[in-house]
Amino acid sequence: MTSYPPAWPHGELKEIFTNIFFVMGTNITTYEGVELQHSRNMVVIKNDEELTLINTVKLGEDGLAALDKLGKVTHVIRIGAFHGRDDAFYLDRYSANLWALQGMEHENNRITDIELIPGDSLPFPNGSLFLFETSIHPEGILHLHQEDGILICCDSIKNWVSADPYFSEETAKLYESLGFFGEATISQIWQQACKVKIEDFERLKQLKFKHLISAHGMPLMKNADDALKKTLKNEFNI
Q1: I need a labelling partner for 208 at 20 to 30 A (CA). Which of 35, 81, 142, 184 fits?
Q2: Domain boundaries along the sequence of the chain
Q3: What crossing angle do the helices spanning 198-205 and 224-236 adopt, rounded to 10°?
Q4: pLDDT, tens digit, 9 for 90 and up, residues 90-105
Q5: Using CA atoms, how far apart are residues 125 and 233, in angstroms rounded to an integer?
Q6: Could you tell me the sign of the dihedral formed by the alpha carbons of 82, 85, 90, 91, in that order?
Q7: Where on the phi/psi map is residue 182: left (φ > 0), alpha (ψ -120 to 50), or beta?
Q8: CB 45, CB 54: distance < 8 Å
Q9: Has domain 14-236 been given CATH number 1.20.120.450?
Q10: pLDDT averaged over the chain?
Q11: pLDDT at residue 217, as a whole number
């Protein structure tokens, strides 16, 4: 029998744009021998009665009941190499399809059902895939062509402006000391791990959008493009 991670504390599933829902929860992991507890987010996109989950976060019974009221979980999309621990739970519970980037390895020897390829269709309309082509670990961003443009990202861009209730006190202090907090930040740890080259960030700068929903931090509304351009200017002088 497959063993799944627990459902750690999380908030309510909220509609932040028409048919786009957001929930913030907890992530507990160990990095270089240090236990870290911080927040992580899941996005749900509703297309007719089909639901697509992005950056999965396992919900408790009340959260699952709220999810089921929205529709049928049909697709799970994985856009970050370092996320995916809760994918198997939803894939098994709902017999959903796993969409993932080329080269991704999944837990329990799972196999990608549908490969995410730039230019190909997604399980919902008005969306496209941006791929970090130089990254040594698969990473992408979903670009929704509505509401003046919405980016849904995983680890590539974070929006932890400050510690939220899902942080442990120790992790909050550590991240503050390391300068991890800020609008539309690009983590140096992620960048170093993935060895992303500047040409990917130059392409990223060309995307047209106003909003950003990251796997980490609150949604950044209305001025996300300006915030990201500021980050790219400060970090890469582009």
Answers
A1: 81
A2: 14-236
A3: 150
A4: 999 999 999 999 999 9
A5: 32
A6: positive
A7: left
A8: yes
A9: no
A10: 96
A11: 98
